[in-house]
Each structure stands twice: as structure tokens, then as C-alpha cells.
Amino acid sequence: MNKVIILAGGQGKRMKADIPKPLFRVLGEPMLEWVISACEESGLSDICIIKGFMGDMIDEYLGGRYKTVLQAERLGTGHAVMQAIPFLKEDTDGNTLVLCGDAPFIDPVAIKESLVIHKQQKNAVTVITAELENPSGYGRIIRTNNGISGIVEQKDATEEQRLIREVNSGAYWFRTADLIELLGKIDCNNAQHEYYLTDTISLAISGGKNAGAYKSDNPDIIKGANDRRDLLALNTYARMAVIEKHLINGVEFTCTDGIIIERGVEIGVGSEILPGTIIRGSSVIGKNCSVGPNTVIENCRLGDDVKMNCVQAYDSEIESGVKIGPFVHIRPNSCIKSGAKIGDFVEIKNSVIGENTAIAHLTYVGDSDVGKKVNFGCGTVTVNYDGIVKSRCVIGDNCFIGCNTNLIAPVKLGKGVYTAAGTTVTRDIPDYALAIDRGVMKVNEGYTLRKLRNKF
Ligand code: UD1
Ligand code: CA
After folding, report:
1. Protein residue with least CA distance to atom 19, ligand 1
2. Which of 100, 134, 142 to mutate to test the pocket of ligand 1 (most atoms within 8 A of CB)?
3. What would the mean pLDDT of 9-38 be, rounded to a whole number?
């Protein structure tokens, strides 16, 4: 079976943070995750990740999904792969793909096409390359009349070799048995005193084996990040690539300022995304929605024709035809049923809001089950927490909640209940009743005039 080794031992000193470099995020996901998903999309699942600097964080992130091996000392890319020899020896019949954990855009097309060439040419090693405008810093591919003869690192290259624009992506296919043999021959006689994995090319050739190159016509697949400017460049690239995909799918963007859409998000045809909108995780937006401006949506499912303006919504479901905003917070585990309207300065948490219900202003609905066609007056509060336990409110269909009502949970309002403005509801109300809780209003006539007279 084919295997994968992902090199993720790097610290990324120039990032100026104590986390392993492959865990830095591009569009919300660690670079390592992008590399893993390229493997998964290529049908490769026998993966071993080489960790080094703060390797525990890599394990913690992976949560046991894949094997890891520690490279205790950072002695080069060849040395990193040597740490995985026991993993390689589990099955030496197939081929092994080696990838860098900090080059997130390696794509399944390049992975698959290079394997075809690798097998056709019966290579011991096939390196994935690309041509760059500015090849500085990368290993250069040395070509001969009939193929390649080696890779020379920037620091070891002559002036003439530095002019070569075809570079090593850091991704390679090896015949697994040959990789094990070649790793045994690598030394560290070079400018950096490191064990270079790149030396396997010339070692294969001098050992009478074939070595080849697959040149991708997409130079982006080799993009990596050494510092935070590079990371911003990767984010910018990925951000626009995702937006482009949605444009092709029929999503409307008049202006892309401040729009960040993570790559797992789906958006239906005819929807419009307005500036300042961030859509994260596994969110799904239906057709003909209008989202934004200034909206954050994380792991939510929106139906069709939803309008959300200036909203923050997390881990919730919003059905078709719902209008939310401006200035609304939808907290996790909420379901806003179709046709509901949620207006300004409303917070909903862990609640179901029934079809066509209106919660127009200044209201908190938490831990509640609200029926259909309920109308909330301004300033309603579900009092769901007594300082020790949280309790639920149940509000039946067609209720009319007067302004400034407090519903002290646990409490249940039947169908068609009215509450008078300012009422504090402390016990269940039967269907079609009015709950009113007010002192008798007194009117003290002439009060103001008497007060003024006493003053002057
Ligand atoms: C390497 C290649 C270079 C290629 C470039 C592509 C070598 C000698 N050079 O150079 O030809 O153009 O990648 O980006 O291989 N790593 C470890 N342990 C180590 C050293 C590195 O795990 O001891 C990991 C790093 O975390 C990184 C990857 O290997 O993910 C590449 O290492 P890096 O130091 O970035 O190599 P480059 O000098 O960029
Ligand atoms: Ca690098």
C-alpha cells in the first residue's frame, strides 16, 4: 500500500511564537490540515507525521487520527524521514509520498499525476517541481539531456545554478524499498551540515536507479510560510481562491473587502455576500440569501432566502425565509424556524424559535422552546438562570408577550397567552389567558406644581 510521510518538525523561529510552524493557520485551519486533506482527497490514508519542536502540540491537534514520530534533533529533511524507517518497513512493496507540513497548497492533481509518471518511468524517486519567477531560497533542479541529475540547495549552489528557475517543491514519490536504501547513504557534507533528503536524487542515479521530475504548471502548490508576512500571503491567496470558486458557482460579491470564507463552506446559487463577512467551519448557506455586511457565521446551516445583516451566529440552524439583524447574536444550539424575524439587539441561545415568530428588539431568549407566530414585545427577558441551575421556558403558538415581560424559568405559557407589559411571570399560564402582574397605579395630581412651589 502507498504511504505518506509529512515533515512537520519545524519551529518557525521567524514566526516569533512558540507553536510548531505547521500548526499556523491558513483560512482557519492549520497548514498541516491542508496537507493532510490533500492526501485524503488523493485516497492516501496511511500517513506518518514527523514532529519535532513542541511535538506534543501536533499530537494534541491530531487527536490520534494519524501516527506521529518524534525527530528529537533537527538535523535536516533526510534525517527527519529516517525517523520513519520503522513505519516504512511495515510495508515495503508500494510507494511513499513525502510532503512538507508547511506547504499547504499541494494539490491532489499533482499528487496523482506525479505518481503515474513515477510508476511509468519506474523511478526510485520522482520529485514534484515548479517554475518560479523568484526561485530564491528553494532547491534548484539540475537537468541533463535525458532527465534530472540532482537538486542543489540555494546555500550550496553556484552563481550559475542559482539562475535555474525550476525548483523542488519538497514533495516526492519514492519507491518505499528504495527510499529505505537511499536514506542509509545520505551524509551531511554540505553548507548546512544537514542530512538533505534532496541528496536521494543523485544517490539514486549513481546507484543505477531512475530518478525523475514531475513539473506542475501551478507554482502555487509549493508556496510555504517562513514568517508572518508569508503566512498573510498564503491567507490572501487562499481567501481569493475560495471566493473565486464561489463566484464561478454563481455567488455574488460586489466587493470582497473583509470577506473571509473558509474552504469547507458551501454557498447556494444567487446568494450575496457583503463586505466584512466571515463564514467559518462547516457552514452551509442556501440559495438567494443575503449575508452581511459585518456578519460572522460559524458552523451554521442556513436555508434559502435568508437575510442576515450584522449578525454573529454560531452552531445553529436558520431555516428558509428568516430575517435576522441588525446587531443580533445567535448563540450555539439554536434553531430559527422558517419565516421568523429577529431584530436589533436580540440574543438567542440554545432555543427553538417557531415559524413566523417575531422577536423585533432588545430581547434575550435563552434555553427556550418558542412556538409559531409568537410576538415578543420589546425588552422581553427569559430569566433562565437562578445562579445555580439553568431552566427552560416554553412558549406556545400565537402568544403575545408584552413589552418588558420577565419569564422566570422553568415556566410554561400555553397557546395564545397574552402577558401584559411589565409582567413578571412566575408560574405556568393556561391557553388563551392573560397574565398581568402590576401594582395599582396611583396618580398624584398637581405633584409637579407643588414641588416647584416649595423650591422657589
Ligand atoms: C527544503 C528542500 C528544498 C525545497 C524546499 C521546499 C531540503 C534539503 N531542501 O528546503 O530543496 O525547495 O524544502 O520548501 O530538503 N523539517 C523537519 N526536520 C528537519 C528539517 C526540516 O521536520 O530536521 C521539516 C520542516 O518542518 C519543513 C520541511 O521539513 O516542514 C522542509 O524543511 P525546511 O527547513 O523548510 O527546508 P528548506 O530549507 O525550505
Ligand atoms: Ca521551507
Report:
1. 76
2. 100
3. 94
Instruction: Give the CA-trace dihedral at 191, 192, 194, 197, to 10 degrees.
Output: -70
Residue 234: name the closest of 226, 242, 225, 243 by CA. 225
Cell for 445?
395630581
- The SS3 call for residue 176 is helix
Cα–Cα dist 435/106, whole Å: 64
456 has a pLDDT exceeding 80? no
Question: How many whole angstroms from 417 Cα to the centroid of ligand 2?
Answer: 67
Ligand 1, atom 22, lies closest to the CA of 9
**pLDDT by residue (tens digit) across 60-86?**
999 999 999 999 999 999 999 999 999
Give residue 454's pLDDT band: very low, low, confident or very high (50, 70, 90).
Answer: confident
**Tally of residues, the chain:** 456
Q: Is the CB of 68 under 6 A from ligand 1?
A: no
Q: Which residues pair with 311 in a beta bridge?
A: 328
Give the per-residue pLDDT at 233: 96
Q: What is d(CA 62, CA 53) in angstroms, rounded to the nearest whole number?
A: 15
Backbone angles phi, psi at 126, to 5 degrees: -130, 120
User: How far, in whole angstroms, is CA 209 from its chain's centroid?
Assistant: 42
Q: Alpha-carbon distance 342 to 340, whole Å?
A: 7
Instruction: Answer yes or no: is pLDDT of 367 > 90.
Output: yes
Question: Which tens digits make up the pLDDT trace of 379-418?
Answer: 999 999 999 999 999 999 999 999 999 999 999 999 999 9
Please, where are the H alpha helices in 409-455?
A: 447-455
Does the N-terminal peptide bond of residue 326 adopt cis geometry, omega within 30 degrees of 0?
yes
Enumerate the β-bridge partners of residue 70.
Answer: 51
Instruction: Determine contact, residues 6/47, Cβ cutoff 8 Å.
Output: yes
